[in-house]
Amino acid sequence: MMNPLRPHGQHRAPLPPTQSSANGVPSPRSPQNQPGEHASSRAAAGTGAGNRPGKQRDAFFDNAKYLAIVLVAVAHSWEPVKGDSRILQSFYTVVYTFHMPAFIIISGFFSRSFDLRADRLKRLLTGVVVPYVVFETAYSLFKRYVDHAPDQEISLLDPWYLTWFLCALFIWRLTTPIWKLVRWPLPIALGIAMLASVSPEIGDDLDLQRVLQFLPFFVLGLCMKPEHFRLVRRRSVRILSVPVFATALVVGWWAVPRMKTGWFYHRAAAQELAAPWWSGPVMVLALFSCSLLLTACFFSWVPGRKMWFTTLGAGTLYGYLLHGFLIKGGEFGGWFDHAWLERPLGEIFLSVLAAAAVTLLCTSPVRRVFRFAMEPTMEWAFKRDSAEIARGRDRTAGQGAPEREKVSA
Questions:
Q1: Residue 300, CB-side half-sphere exposure with 13 Å CA sphere
Q2: Which of 174, 200, 251, 319 is such that its CA lies 20 to 30 A from the CA of 354?
Q3: In this predicted model, what pLDDT tens digit does every residue of 344-355 receive, in sequence order?
């Protein structure tokens, strides 16, 4: 199918036959097609400039990103109402075990060809850094004025709510060349995550605890090959995933009163969770294993054919960053305070509402409106690459040569 990336980074393989959408949660851009989601949307439709035959989007990855973003939004809608509901808390725990790892693994997989070439650095800035600055500012102002919190500061060093993923993606992607160079990338990344789990001194700057504790999933994605995804999509794996998820729900129900939810957020050291220091590395390894197992089960259920929601996979960055305003607006406005929402029918209603809302936020009209903030071109901000200029001159010269020959004939 393609030349796989070798684990030690000795040979860089091309991306799979897909063009991912913009950088961001849960919707990482393909390093070869980062300029904007609008370009990738044209490619998905089989039209547009620069679209080559055979370079179509892989429906599996778009389906996976869409389903994962729905789980993210649904889980966020559960937070204000889960209260003492042990069943809902067990579902919440299970979903939090794998929904972000799934996104991060896909992000790493589509970062395999990233290097420090000028055009890719530009796309990293416009596709990750600019949205981070815009939405970190927007969320801080939203909390200040809607929640009446005048002490809420705008700090680009302290990500608030959803923006931590953009900060993490920027750091992970910048370190990609290193992970492709070292001999044992995944064990090293796990070692770093384990050390972070016993280092409360790291603090909240850039949400480094999350950056480091989620790092192994990104590095795993870098090391993965297309056949690994095909492996987990076999019918036998799909069938085995049913009892695995059922067992996970039982374990989640058992763990609710015995385990702090903070472990699943990966944003605190063991000492900050009032646990002995040695439990940090143990939990990192245990949760990594559980997350990997449930993520494999999730991937096994993702359809590989084109579905009605496949095209929405190109807009998961939009759904991710925008749905937070609905969730936080509901919390600030007291929308979740109604007692009936804490009953089974109310929880189902919230789940359906959250899924519908994030689906709408992934659609093309919404992407067109907010593209200026999430996928700006910003050609005015960068110098033109001399190599790109030279290639343009060569193309112009090549096109003019036949004309000269025709005239001389």
A1: 19
A2: 251
A3: 899 999 999 999
